Amino acid sequence: MPRPTGRVLTLLELLQSGGTRTVAELADRLGVEGRTVRRYVDHLIDLDVPVESVRGRYGGYRLAPGYRLPPLMLSDDEALAVLLGLVAGRRAGLTTTERTANETASAKIRRVLPQRIARRLDTLLEALAFTDQPGEPDHPDAGVLLAVADAVRHRRPVAVRYTDRDGRRSERTLHPCGIVAHGSRWYVTGKDPQVDEDRTFRLDRIADVRTLPGSFEAPEGPGPAQRVLSGFATAEYRYEVTLRIHGTPEQIRAHLPGSVASLAEHEPAAARDPAAERWLRVELRAERLDWLPPVLAALDRPFVIERPTELRELVIALADRLTSRAGQA
Questions:
Q1: Residues of the chain whose pLDDT is less than 70?
Q2: CA 323 to chain CA centroid, nearest Å
Q3: In the chain, what is the straight-line distance between the N-terminal and C-terminal CA atoms, in Å?
Q4: Is the bond preceding residue 302 a cis peptide, omega within 30 degrees?
Q5: d(CA 302, CA 323)
Q6: pLDDT (tens digit, 9 = 90+) per residue, 6-46?
Q7: What is the pTM (predicted TM-score) of this model?
Q8: How many alpha carbons fall within 13 Å on the CB side of residue 111?
Q9: Omega of the bond prior to 71 within 30 degrees of 0, cis?
Q10: I need a surface site. Which of 126, 142, 148, 243 has the fewest CB within 10 A?
Q11: Is residue 276 classed as helix, strand or coil in its secondary structure?
């Protein structure tokens, strides 16, 4: 039979999970009577744990919001889930400039894990492999990230101090509609009210966020993630590429995703099956063209290069190399 101290800690764990718990529910979970639950609650209050009593038909007990509860109680599976989340977040670059926070949090949890659970975790991490290669993440400041998130939630305009990729600094006004994590980087997207155009900023290039008076309406149309991907596909680069490719959108997107290229109907027609093969106009911008011929070859669909001429020449050169090597004995 569990000792009273064990039941008190179990009560604490139940309250930690959030919400209001009725006396009947707690008594059932602990295997005791209602008056015993009240006595256990008194024990927690004596330990300076802020347990609140909620009156009414659906009343019961809950923890005061915002209280940092020592100790944090996690089951074995919860501890493993948290540690794996920290490992995956660090591996994906989705951490803030306070990188040590990830490491110290992992160390604190590992330090109190039972040895058998720690061994299971070490075994899993040794066996774990990732198919993608991590890039060099750019970590946003935690304060900037949280301030922007608050502005997104409450639809508040913000002024930010921003440094662009050329090192130019400016103060910008933004109506932020969402935060997007993509390719080991954090982005905020929204509308610049001064020019009435969509803007996407890298959060690691924002030095300061200041909330401005007023509010704004949520934008219509694509969500934040799609806005960021569309911004990548239309960003200014050295080459502007226009193609016509015969195939389905799914076939093309498998090799040219939304973050790289935009698709449009080449010959719009009414009542067309959206999954049918047809000629689609593909537009993208690129700083280099040498990666495109292999992509078009792997696509294995009929295509026409409208521009630039340099791409047509690179495709012909690749075809000649492949033909030459295929003929070698």
A1: 1-3, 58, 66-74, 92-101, 130-138, 183, 233-236, 267-275, 329
A2: 44
A3: 80
A4: no
A5: 18
A6: 788 888 878 877 788 899 889 888 889 988 999 999 988 88
A7: 0.53
A8: 6
A9: yes
A10: 126
A11: coil
